[in-house]
Amino acid sequence: MIDPVRHLEESGHLSRFYIDGIWVEPQGRERAGVVDPASESVIAEIPLGSVADADRAVRAARKAFAGWSRTAPAERAALLSRVHALVLERAELIAQALTGEMGAAISYARQAQVPLAVEHLRVARDNLLDFPFVSQRGTTAICKEPIGVCALITPWNWPLYQITAKVGPALAAGCTVILKPSELSPLSALLFAEIMDEAGCPPGVFNLVHGSGPVVGEALASHEEVDMISITGSTRAGVLVAQAAAPTVKRVAQELGGKSPNIVLPDADLARCVPLGVASAMRNLGQSCSAPTRMLVPRARLAEVEALAAETAEGFAVGDPQDEATTHGPIANRAQYERIQTMIEAGVAEGAKLVTGGPGRPDGLDSGLFARPTIFSDVRPDMAIAREEIFGPVLAILPYDSVEEAIEIANDTIYGLGAHVHGADLEQARAVAAQIRAGQVHINAPAWDPQAPFGGYKRSGNGREYGREGMEEYLETKSVLGFYPNPA
Length: 488
Prior knowledge:
Layout: H1 4-11, E1 17-19, E2 22-24, E3 31-36, E4 41-47, H2 51-68, H3 73-89, H4 91-102, H5 106-129, E5 134-137, E6 140-146, E7 149-153, H6 159-173, E8 176-180, H7 187-198, E9 206-208, H8 213-222, E10 228-232, H9 235-245, E11 251-255, E12 261-264, H10 270-281, E13 294-298, H11 302-314, H12 334-349, E14 353-356, E15 374-377, H13 384-387, E16 394-400, H14 403-411, E17 418-422, H15 426-435, E18 440-443, E19 461-462, H16 467-472, E20 475-480
């Protein structure tokens, strides 16, 4: 097995930041342990940055912006191609890092966490090569130009995936970046910084600084030389970043919380859509902001749904994430584990029907942050488990009496990130999808599309990632009147 911690220790990069094209000693004195959630042991220690470290990275990015923003699209695409190839080359090393730092089952890290992250790089490159940076409207030129220096704050649940979803389009647009990954899952970010360096990224175009949200995150959000900040995280964190950014009137893109509905229409094939719905809700242990953790089903078919859902959840293999037979490893960190346990207990106390799972660890697991895949049924819309984002393997099944009521329940949330609809009548499914207030809707469990823009309504955030729209977030619009001559 490849040991990412040993690799980073031997390179000397574990204790350094990547700023202005070199690995530098941090100015901050604080350090944080990286905890393997399967064993709850500290497997590495990283430095936490200071305001001075953040400022140093911003200054490097600002210095590099003038040159990078004027490079030809083909040059930027060539860099992304090199990064893409190097991530594929080191896929196993990165997968092992993800398993160690946040508990992803190794099979899932190999089959989803890394491959999906790589796709963001390919899409950014491909979109860059055919993007119309200048278009004509009468005699006016409409120019799309890079917004400037961008601070990127990424979460612990999809560490590499969210890095590439931001860094790829930002660099494609011609921006320079400072990446602040979650201090809870920093190993994959360090490996990515190594790749950026080896790929020949010009000094200052990509910078990496570890640190906490209240220190480094706030310093980046409030910095007068940062033109844009993009954050993926909780709604609470997004609000704090927006507040810190407000005095400098910078652009703020937020991909935040969710409580996504999955509407199972009366004509849906339950044998197909219920297992798919459970698997989607509990993908990555439910630690996904768009996880469809509210399954809305016809009341008359509730018993059928419960049986199928229980069978699916009880078929998951929860255990050692290094075991290739494991489908679901541990919860990523102690705070999240405790949150999940609290919410499961709240569901029981509120009187929801416990179909399978419940508090505590699965049988046979006496240590580690392992949670039981849990399904509640006969859940009312006013229950906490139906309203609050749990961010764990907990599914709430809510019965409805009409499709109109299902749509009303689906929209009765402060969030609006994702949604699912299942039904045999495609026209009806489309009509339901059109009425759901969410940024991305899946009809009948389609394949993932990296070109599909992703983002939220309401308190799920603003702005879009992925696809062409993901790159447009990092661009300003300039109109140049009289650029083209008047027609003869």
